[in-house]
Amino acid sequence: MNAPTPFPNSAPTQIAFHRTELNAILSLYGRFVAAGEWRDYGISHLKEVAVFSVFRRTAEHPMYRIEKRPSLRMKQGQYVVIGMEGRILKRGNDLRQVLRVLERKLIRAID
């Protein structure tokens, strides 16, 4: 007889970035820091979304927000990059593909 699973319908209490996701984001972040474009970041792990915010200066609003919303995985894609003005720049289920919208900005910043 199979033992019952404790709390079978319990959802995680908060959404978080996995180590591989953070590696991809921090790799991009490091390249922007080296180029002198970005200076600070913040990470929020909330009930429905995990957010990586990028700042030019600490006291400002974030320049970009990289969000993970697993509830949208089957609809629009769980990853999204949002600009300072709130406009969605790229959305999808492949984080590296979504981050490419920011990599294009890095190429222009270095030129």
Topology:
Layout: H1 19-34, E1 40-45, E2 50-55, E3 64-68, E4 79-83, E5 88-92, H2 95-110
Antiparallel strand pairs: 1-2, 2-3, 3-4, 4-5
Helix pairs in contact: 1-2
Detailed description of the structure:
This protein is α+β, with helices and mostly antiparallel strands and 111 residues long. It has one domain. The chain contains two helices and five strands, in the order αβββββα. Strand 4 and strand 5 form a beta hairpin. Helix 1 runs parallel beside helix 2. The chain is globular and about 45 Å long. Pfam families: DUF2794. InterPro entries: DUF2794.
Described by the principal axes of the CA atoms, the overall outline is globular
Distance from first to last alpha carbon: 65 Å
Spatial order of strands in the largest sheet: 1-2-3-4-5
Biggest sheet: strands, sense, closure?
5 strands, antiparallel
| Overall helicity | 25-40%
Taken as a percent bin, the fraction of beta residues is 15-25%
Kindly name the structural category. alpha+beta
Number of DSSP strand runs:
5
Average of pLDDT: 82
Number of helices: 2
List low-pLDDT spans: none
Number of domains: 1
Rg computed from alpha carbons, rounded to a whole number of angstroms: 16 Å
